[in-house]
Specification:
Blueprint (H helix, E strand, L loop, with lengths): L1 H10 L11 H44 L6 H15 L3 H15 L12 H17 L1
Length: 135
């Protein structure tokens, strides 16, 4: 009787229920979302730093243009052409540079050059003023 009672009790035991476990997918989903968020933040920080670097470079070029000493006309013409070309990024500055460059050419490729004439200096100063306003 004891044995029959035991088997009757055993028949009442139900099998284990399978509980759906999504923690594995949730774990990897959170890692992927976190990684994407981190990459996005890094992208925008890098973009911001790169844009600030470009602005700082332009300011440096402008300072080099303002610091040109026109006593040595040949060296000054080379320096002015180099930095003015680097600053000519928008339409107005490109147009002014295309007008300024031929004026500076006459001081560049000769062994002996005259002093820079007033018209060239005026065009150069206009270019520097426009570049200064746009930076």
């Amino acid at each position: 009787m004891n044995e029959q009672n035991l088997t009757a009790q055993l028949k009442d035991i139900k099998p284990l229920l399978e509980i759906p476990d999504n923690s594995y997918y949730i774990y990897w989903g959170l890692i992927i979302v976190g990684s994407l968020l981190l990459l996005g933040i890094l992208f925008f920080i890098t973009k911001r730093l790169w844009e600030n670097r470009k602005i700082n470079l332009a300011k440096g070029y402008l300072e080099k243009l303002k610091a040109i000493d026109w006593k040595d006309a040949k060296h000054s013409a080379y320096t002015a052409t180099h930095y003015a070309r680097l600053l000519a990024t928008d339409e107005r500055r490109k147009e002014l540079f295309s007008q300024l460059e031929p004026m500076l050419e006459k001081y560049k490729y000769k062994k002996e050059v005259d002093e820079v004439d007033q018209e060239t200096l005026n065009k150069f100063n206009l270019y520097v003023q426009v570049a200064d306003e746009s930076i």
